[in-house]
Amino acid sequence: MSKAKIVQLILDKKTEEALFKLSKYYSIQPPQIVVGTIKGKRRTVYAVYVQRESKIYCINSDIFYNPFIVLHEFYHHLRTHAGIHRGSEKHANQYAKDFINSYNRVNFSE
Prior knowledge:
Helices cover about 55% and strands about 10% of the residues.
């Protein structure tokens, strides 16, 4: 799995495919991802992972195609399905940054 390719899929508006590939790599079921909000989070976050639904809610379509936010929320899904606590926001941010940095290295080296 190439981190840069995952980012490119999201930028190419193939978010579900990116999540499918990531989930396959980690041998877990992919989360659903939808544009929508949940009560209590409508104005406070761009996206949220709801563990009991195994679903990522994005506030709008711009967020649906934002690699950093999608990967951040996927990290919470991954941690949940690994049988480990959801993980900190700091770790979720670092997970997403690793993908973005990989993408930037590939694109800036060409």
